[in-house]
Amino acid sequence: MTILHSVDKEKNITLTTWIGNVDDSEMVSAYKKLYEDPDWKPGFDEIADMRNANLKAITEVGLLELHQLVRSQTEGKCDSFKTIIVASDQVIKDLAEKYKAFDEDVPEELFVFEDLQEAYKFLRKK
What we know:
Strand order of the largest sheet: 1-2-3-4-5
Structural class: alpha/beta
Number of strands: 5
Radius of gyration: 13 Å
Oligomer: single chain
Order of helices and strands: EEHEHEHEH
Shape: globular
Helix content: 25-40%
Distance between the termini: 32 Å
């Protein structure tokens, strides 16, 4: 598994690249590490490129833990932010829908695109 974060503090964007098999623990640990990055700030949008990831080991418990972590880092600290998942795999799309069900208390808007360039275009329109 690999989850790599690249923070662009000039554009207020985090690009996250997911590669290989990822489980709950690895996912949550990667985001804890992101939130420790001094360049990351609450409210930064994210493009999560999951086109080369296998997330079959991700559970609803892991999604909820990630949601709680995101909430702890953003609630009351920013108005809103977008997370754009880039993936064509149905498992990933289904996980995104499950994650959306938790996001009522988080200023996060979640979108799924199959094409990375379309995701960038969408984000530029904000």
